[in-house]
Amino acid sequence: MKKASRFFSLVMAGCMVFSMTAMAKEVGAPVADYEQAKPAQVTDYYYCVDEYGNIIDLAYNVYSKDPATVLPSSIVNGAIDEDKEIGEFMNNAVTGIWAMDEVVPVAQGGKVIVDGVESNMTFSVLKPELSRVYSAKDFAVTLGGSVLNVVKVDVPANLKWASANVNFYTPGIVTGQNVKVYTYADDTWTECNVTEVRDDHVVVDITSEGILAFFEVPAATTAAE
Asked: What is the pTM of this model?
């Protein structure tokens, strides 16, 4: 069998197959790329031909990229809208933030207890504003500790609640590690009650949505008055 090939390009003027939402609100954190929603295009045809050069059948196509890697535009746009990479968006997690080279990933670990009742409620784990990251870094100095991560927790709009015990999935945290969690409001960091620290999990009582910062603090150190 012989092969014959021809190259072609397809230009669709004014036609886009995914919507262009606003770009990331702040520069500096890893976010999804629109390229991940761009369709794979055929760049070459390969045919099977007979001994006379007559085309018998299409053998295969060559694509501009692996079609299996093309993601739904809703996922890519959703990730970009939240200033997240694809994995962060799909896992309701924050694994990278502005002004920090490395963080302990934070995601919701399930089984949120709302006002003493276990629920299937999902609390969104979002990226914070850059100013909150700098504020957490400054506050860590007063604790004599270091910032593990800073996130923004969002709750369903229709949820009426007074307190919630939230299990955060934090891969890399180990049992016995002295992890403190603080919430930010009115230019003040206030300590939350951490009910459990075990391998890959930090369980925290919170009373409102908003900014949470995770710190590693030496056992003998407390916040400066």
From this structure: 0.75
* Pairwise CA distance, residues 108 & 113, whole Å: 12
What the block records as the tokens of 20 is: 């262009």
pLDDT tens digits for range 189-209: 999 999 999 999 999 999 999
CB 203 within 8 A of CB 180: no
Q: What confidence tens digit (pLDDT) does each residue in 121-175 have?
A: 889 999 999 999 999 999 999 999 999 999 999 998 888 899 999 999 999 999 9
Q: Where are the domains of the chain?
A: 2-84, 91-216
Give me the DSSP letters along 2-51: EEEEEE-----TT--SS---PPPSSSSS----GGGGSPP-EEEEEEEE-T
Alpha-carbon span 210 to 186, nearest angstrom: 11
As a whole number of angstroms, the distance between CA 197 and CA 26 comes to 32
Q: Please enumerate, as own/partner, the contacts of 58-62 that have beta carbons within 8 Å and a separation of 24 or more.
A: 59/3
- The answer to whether residues 105 and 94 touch, using CB atoms and an 8 Å cutoff, is yes
